[in-house]
Amino acid sequence: MNDKDRKGLHSALKSKGLRPTRQRTCVYETILGKKDHPNADEILLRVRRNLPTISLATVYNCLDALVDCGLVRQVNLDRSPSRFCPNLTPHAHFKCNRTGKIHDIPMDPKVVASLESSLPKGFTAENFDLSFIGSTDKKNHS
Amino acid sequence: MNDKDRKGLHSALKSKGLRPTRQRTCVYETILGKKDHPNADEILLRVRRNLPTISLATVYNCLDALVDCGLVRQVNLDRSPSRFCPNLTPHAHFKCNRTGKIHDIPMDPKVVASLESSLPKGFTAENFDLSFIGSTDKKNHS
DNA sequence: ACACAAAAATGGAATTATTCTAATTCCAAA
DNA sequence: TTTGGAATTAGAATAATTCCATTTTTGTGT
Ligand SMILES: [Mn+2]
Ligand SMILES: [Mn+2]
Ligand SMILES: [Zn+2]
Ligand SMILES: [Zn+2]
Questions:
Q1: Which long-range contacts link A83-87 to residues 24+ away (Cβ below 8 Å)?
Q2: How would you classify the pairing of strands A91-96 and A123-136?
């Protein structure tokens, strides 16, 4: 984790009155390290390589703190376990039904604007979620 | 339930080799009757007014059959219990965080097209899900 | 009508992601 | 260095959904 990320973590936590504990730092580091939308179980496995005694409850606590601070996005597709994503830019998710992989799809501000403006009068969105299901060709099987 | 709906139910079920049982018919009728995106528990309550002995397992079985036949859409928002919607036209969902109500948001084919075309080369979507969270003004508190 | 087989419904147990609880440990400030 | 609140922990609890074994219903052929 670089200095900017560490700085961002500390200030975002502080702004909510939370402390940058070893566990929170390591969970955040882990999510930044591999942008593949892991779920809590997978994050537990990865974090335990550095903090072998961390518990699943703590992983959930840390994830909740990071989400509440806006450092991480919680991604819910269908009814599968929540996944976590460090990409804070407006983007959609694409789940390939052949590989099971989740891909980030960057969203053009134009498209975002057209989405928001498609809301009828009287509706004010403060957030949206967009996901696709489909298949990817061989190039995206990374 | 009108004749067209009953016809659609029977043919959609038949096309999957399923039978239009009393339970399936009643669950479908219930979902058509009030387009408020009920979950399985709420559907159980409503269906029991006509079929007092139906079980929750059967409601889930029926919902699965109806979804598999394409007669009903399963709507998952965050990690709350699945909701069910008879609106088969392309539409998004809007959850009002003041009232908790779910609203259908019709989607202009232009916007749908711009969504699909925002996918990078190599990604082919066969489906998408779009939901908003926000607030509605008094007019939409129906 | 009757018998049979397949499909469906049923109740309850099992599963599983997540949250809760109560006990312990950590840590920043006094 | 004490200490009080914050955080972590293990395990129990919760709740939506699925599974399983049994019973009921239904369609078909006699
Ligand atoms: Mn939270
Ligand atoms: Mn299904
Ligand atoms: Zn993402
Ligand atoms: Zn709907």
A1: A83/A37, A83/A38, A83/A39, A84/A31, A84/A37, A84/A38, A84/A39, A84/A40, A84/A43, A85/A31, A85/A35, A85/A37, A86/A28, A86/A31, A86/A32, A86/A35, A87/A35
A2: parallel
**Residues belonging to chain A with any Cβ–Cβ distance to chain B shorter than 8 Å:** 76, 78-79, 82, 92, 94, 97, 103, 105, 107-108, 110-111, 114-115, 118-120, 122-137, 139-140
Kindly report, residue by residue over B31-66, the tens digit of the pLDDT.
999 999 999 999 999 999 999 999 999 999 999 999
Whether residue A43 has pLDDT greater than 60:
yes
Domains of chain A: 3-84 (1.10.10.10), 89-134 (3.30.1490)
Nucleotide closest to residue B80 (CA–C1'): D16
What's the predicted TM-score (pTM) here?
A: 0.93
Interacting residues of B55 by C-beta distance below 8 A, sequence separation 6+: none
A100: region left, alpha or beta (phi > 0 left; psi from -120 to 50 alpha): left
* Residue position matching structure tokens 């990409």: A87
Question: One-letter amino acid identity for B109?
Answer: P
**CA pair distance A85, A89, nearest whole angstrom:** 11
DSSP character at residue B50: T
Taking residue B83's Cβ as centre, other Cβ atoms within 10 Å add up to: 21
User: Which tokens is A6 given?
Assistant: 């560490």
Name residue A124's beta-bridge partners: B135
CB neighbour list of residue A66: distance below 8 Å, 6 or more residues apart: A24, A27, A28, A31, A72, A84
pLDDT of amino acid B139: 73
Identify whether the C-beta of residue B115 lies closer than 8 Å to the C-beta of residue A111: yes
Tokens 């016809």: give the residue.
Answer: B7
